[in-house]
Amino acid sequence: MPVIARHLMILGRVQGVFYRNWTVETASRLGLAGWVRNRMDGSVEALVQGEADAVAHFITLAQNGPPAAKVARIDATDVPVEALNGFEKSPTA
């Protein structure tokens, strides 16, 4: 299975609802690498990398996120694969 990477912009009610914690837990459980951070505009940004099926499954799950979230839209863009280990929360950008 090929390794792919996607840059995600997650829009909606996604801050203050534990979306980043949920992302780290879910991505780690799926064996994905990358990072997630809040954006000053109220969105959440993530880089998700791993086997294509796992990345696609993560994006499907991310459309709901944690119980208090209300995701309006996820914009996903293909990006080059990087040398990443693990999944972490990054500082707000």
Automatic annotation (TrEMBL):
Gene3D superfamilies noted in UniProt: 3.30.70.100
Catalytic activity: an acyl phosphate + H2O = a carboxylate + phosphate + H(+)
Name of the molecule in the record: acylphosphatase
InterPro entries named among the record's database cross-references: Acylphosphatase, Acylphosphatase-like_dom, Acylphosphatase-like_dom_sf, Acylphosphatase_CS
Keyword Flavoprotein set for record: no
Domain Acylphosphatase-like: 5-91
Active site residues per record: 20, 38
